[in-house]
């Protein structure tokens, strides 16, 4: 394998390629991150039709991180099922020309004594694990049939100590170790107990956010009201979805429930970002075209990852956010965005065709609601409808960002969408009339026409907030459009 370099490489990719900068469905290629490389892998699989072993080849892109390095060394490790992998980054499509060879089988006759000796022990261990898993699964299903509020309202659960115990019991059954971001349950609780609260940095209808300190590192501690138990449970559940980790999605650390002596707290601990939300950031910043495009592209990058389903040995369901707004997007120190707040998120499994919507009385933010939600015509049985509603909301966010870009010395003051049409806290009916009946959208000032970049973005925004959902651009297309503009702006610096 050739030494790594800092360039991107185009690789042959037969199928879906997760965790790469770009995947081209039309010609089956992917583009690695800088320093990444291409791979070709071969594995012996059993063909039930021919009743024989066959070689199956797969191709794709690998990231430059250590887990990618380990995959490239997989051929050095003995496997019960023969397989091998070869990697390269010497040029575009280099993995088409490398042919990994399956290592010979381990001589099973030499190990027959060991197999005879340890087979009964291994069989017993497998049986114990299976029985334990079934028991815990049944216990979990039975426990979570009752919501936390029902537990608290049960007769006999009147004292604060009993309520704390009920919360704890619910947490024991509801929070798993998770296969996505975050850490195992016991470690999460240890982190929560050792986190020191420093100061309150924000309040909302769900609760309050504090800046905290864990072992010298800043963390954000989101405290949910007990009436928002469904949002707390859903959010930590979404954060721990496999393969959700992404540069433009807020990093999850831990979730826990604890008592303070006077009430019970539902905690969600995440990475802390000094810049706060995009809403706060735009209040005081004037942007140039490059910094504006960084914010826009990174926000779409996070949304695109959410919307995408990843299929493979590890899978990630497609996820729709359902509450996209500038207050639910954070800004990192490098001027890029992070998607946050998944209390209303919905998941979709393409294999079962099931849309997983957690029961929650909370609704999205009225100001950012799509026309089909306000008119109550959204097709709840079609997952694409939720993604299209997200794109409408994201278009409003892009409009907010664009207003703060200075063109020829002209910059508009920060305003929320529809600031000139509805009150500060609009009702559902206020928004329905403006968006659905009157068909109004936020206006573009003359400044947007003075810049070719802003003019292009305004056309993209208009397509994304179109009255007809199916006309709206998908998040991947918007991401690619913004990536081209960002690349052009970067070349001029």
From TrEMBL:
Pfam families: Activin_recp, Pkinase, TGF_beta_GS. It is an enzyme of class 2 (transferase). The chain crosses the membrane at residues 118-138. ATP binds at residue 222. Its cofactor is Mg(2+); Mn(2+). It is found in: Membrane. One of its GO terms (biological process) is cellular response to growth factor stimulus. The keyword Magnesium applies. It is a single-pass type I membrane protein. The keyword Nucleotide-binding applies. It catalyses: L-threonyl-[receptor-protein] + ATP = O-phospho-L-threonyl-[receptor-protein] + ADP + H(+). This is Serine/threonine-protein kinase receptor. Residues 195-486 form the Protein kinase domain. Belongs to the protein kinase superfamily. TKL Ser/Thr protein kinase family. TGFB receptor subfamily. Its EC number is 2.7.11.30. Keywords: ATP-binding, Kinase, Magnesium, Manganese, Membrane, Metal-binding, Nucleotide-binding, Receptor, Serine/threonine-protein kinase, Signal, Transferase, Transmembrane, Transmembrane helix. It comes from Dinothrombium tinctorium.
């Amino acid at each position: 394998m050739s030494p790594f370099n800092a360039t991107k490489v185009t690789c042959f990719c037969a199928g879906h390629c997760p965790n790469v900068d770009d995947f081209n469905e039309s010609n089956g290629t992917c583009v690695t991150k800088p320093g990444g490389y291409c791979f070709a892998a071969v594995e012996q699989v059993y063909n039930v039709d021919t009743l024989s072993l066959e070689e199956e080849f797969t191709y794709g892109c690998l990231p430059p991180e250590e887990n990618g390095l380990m995959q490239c060394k997989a051929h050095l490790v003995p496997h019960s099922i023969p397989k091998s992998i070869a990697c390269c980054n010497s040029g575009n499509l280099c993995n088409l020309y490398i042919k990994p060879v399956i290592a010979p089988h381990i001589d099973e006759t030499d190990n027959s004594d060991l197999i005879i000796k340890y087979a009964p022990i291994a069989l017993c261990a497998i049986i114990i694990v299976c029985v334990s898993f079934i028991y815990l699964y049944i216990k979990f299903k039975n426990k979570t049939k009752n919501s936390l509020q029902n537990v608290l309202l049960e007769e006999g659960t009147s004292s604060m100590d009993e309520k704390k115990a009920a919360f704890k019991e619910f947490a024991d059954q509801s929070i798993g170790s998770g296969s996505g971001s975050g850490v195992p349950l016991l470690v999460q609780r240890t982190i929560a107990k050792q986190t020191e609260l420093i100061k309150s940095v924000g309040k909302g209808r769900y609760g309050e956010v504090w800046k905290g300190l864990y072992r010298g590192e800043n963390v954000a501690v989101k405290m949910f009201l007990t009436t928002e138990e469904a949002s707390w449970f859903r959010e930590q559940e979404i954060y721990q979805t496999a393969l959700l980790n992404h540069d433009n999605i807020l990093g999850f650390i831990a979730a826990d429930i604890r008592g303070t002596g006077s009430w019970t707290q539902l905690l969600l601990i995440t990475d802390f970002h000094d810049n706060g939300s995009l809403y706060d950031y735009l209040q005081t910043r004037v942007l140039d075209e490059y910094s504006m495009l960084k914010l826009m592209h990174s926000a779409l990058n996070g949304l695109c990852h959410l919307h995408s389903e990843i299929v493979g040995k590890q899978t990630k369901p497609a996820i729709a956010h359902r509450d996209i707004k500038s207050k639910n997007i954070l800004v990192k120190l490098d001027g890029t965005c992070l998607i946050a707040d998944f209390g209303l998120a919905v998941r979709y499994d393409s294999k079962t065709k099931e849309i997983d919507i957690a029961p929650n009385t909370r609704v999205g933010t009225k100001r950012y609601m799509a026309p089909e939600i306000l008119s109550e015509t959204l097709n709840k049985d079609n997952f694409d409808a939720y993604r299209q509603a997200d794109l409408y909301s994201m278009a409003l966010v892009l409009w907010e960002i664009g207003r703060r870009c200075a063109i020829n010395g002209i910059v508009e003051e920060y305003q929320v969408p529809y600031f000139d049409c509805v009150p500060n806290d609009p009702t559902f009916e206020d928004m329905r009339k403006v968006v659905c009946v009157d068909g109004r959208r936020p206006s573009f000032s003359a400044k947007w026409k003075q810049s070719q970049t802003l003019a292009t973005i305004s056309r993209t925004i208009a397509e994304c907030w179109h009255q007809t959902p199916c006309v709206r651009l998908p998040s991947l297309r918007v991401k690619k459009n913004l990536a081209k503009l960002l690349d052009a702006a970067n070349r001029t610096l």
